[in-house]
Amino acid sequence: MEKIAMLGGGSWATALTKILSENGARVDWWLRSKDDVQHLLRTGHNPRYLSAVQFDRNLVYPTTDLTDAVAEADWLVLAVPAAFVQPVLDKLGRDALRHKSGVVSAIKGMIPGKNVLVTDYVQERFRLPAARLGVIAGPCHAEEVALEKQSYLTIGSPDVSGLANSFCHLLRNRYVSAHPAADLDGIEYCAVMKNIIALTGGIAHGLGYGDNFLAVLVSNAVQEIRRFLQAISPQPRDLSASAYLGDLLVTAYSQFSRNRTFGNMVGRGYSVKSAQLEMNMIAEGYYAVKSIHELNRQLKVNMPITTAAYNVLYERIAPAVELEILKEKLR
Ligand SMILES: NC(=O)C1=CN([C@@H]2O[C@H](COP(=O)(O)OP(=O)(O)OC[C@H]3O[C@@H](n4cnc5c(N)ncnc54)[C@H](OP(=O)(O)O)[C@@H]3O)[C@@H](O)[C@H]2O)C=CC1
Ligand SMILES: O=C(CO)COP(=O)(O)O
């Protein structure tokens, strides 16, 4: 039996724990909330995220003890939002992951302040070879996994035929298709950037812009993402694949999108703080836009959408003013 340590207590950790445990893996699940762990132990349900999902208590072992959760696992899956993951990882000893089959990040964000990809941080901190790292990507909302709607995941890793293939095998089921891919960095950066685009689309929607504008925003976003990836991680890649374009589309258009919802509130006049409080979930794009903007100070890629989102969220430019400027730059 494969043993997996799942880190994170939110929607995506809950959905992935459902998929993995229903496929017969043992999941040692680290959550930060003692109350949530107690509730899971008592009832088999995560009380605050996808609470309808019932877990098999012979396969799923919730705990607040991080070292315990990780100790015996073959695989580590990271599903703590990027803004909070570094302090969690830093509690583990530098050799704690040395014998794992792989560390797979399900996080779509960057380490704030350091502005590095989560897998780059893990590789450096735990001195792991790149071939032991992977990302879980693709257009997939936790809410639809809970409802067992057909979904597609891509596992990116330099070790396509080993790590990526093996992890796909752990995920595939009646309603989840999983495919391996080699472009770890490109997939991870794209997953970060699509959140910024969806957030900006949400701002536009909140201001009253319609579907015509959103379609143009998304088309321009593909070009912006292409330019950025070409500058930061140049290699041939097909951006129309679902790990890139599919993820951008689901986030930009879905009712479940946290980033779009957050942007929509900002467009309607909520402050960042009140939008965050009201959502009760994490919009990674808010943090990502700062990292990408700062990274781009050196790269100097033309990124009008990211610049607009940064100006609204961090320079306190009125959304209506910033969108007026952005609209002139789109084609
Ligand atoms: N939801 C989805 O459909 C998908 C999410 N992802 C990615 O998964 C990652 C996790 O997101 P998701 O599961 O959606 O998160 P949610 O928005 O569902 O939940 C938020 C999580 O963040 C934790 N959290 C909030 N504030 C803090 C803090 N200050 N310190 C530490 N932890 C905190 C919460 O813990 P608590 O409840 O204890 O407050 C909770 O576990 C993100 O990178 C996201 O982009 C990727 C694909 C799909
Ligand atoms: O990445 C995700 C789905 O693929 C989740 O992010 P959003 O909730 O913002 O769409």
TrEMBL record:
Residues 183-320 form the Glycerol-3-phosphate dehydrogenase NAD-dependent C-terminal domain. It comes from the Bacteria. Belongs to the NAD-dependent glycerol-3-phosphate dehydrogenase family. Its EC number is 1.1.1.94. Keywords: Lipid biosynthesis, Lipid metabolism, NAD, Oxidoreductase, Phospholipid biosynthesis, Phospholipid metabolism. GO terms for molecular function: glycerol-3-phosphate dehydrogenase (NADP+) activity; NAD binding. This is Glycerol-3-phosphate dehydrogenase. The keyword Calcium does not apply. Residues 3-159 form the Glycerol-3-phosphate dehydrogenase NAD-dependent N-terminal domain. One of its GO terms (biological process) is phospholipid biosynthetic process. SUPFAM superfamilies: 6-phosphogluconate dehydrogenase C-terminal domain-like, NAD(P)-binding Rossmann-fold domains. PROSITE patterns: NAD_G3PDH. It comes from Hymenobacter setariae. The active site is at residue 194. GO terms for cellular component: cytosol.
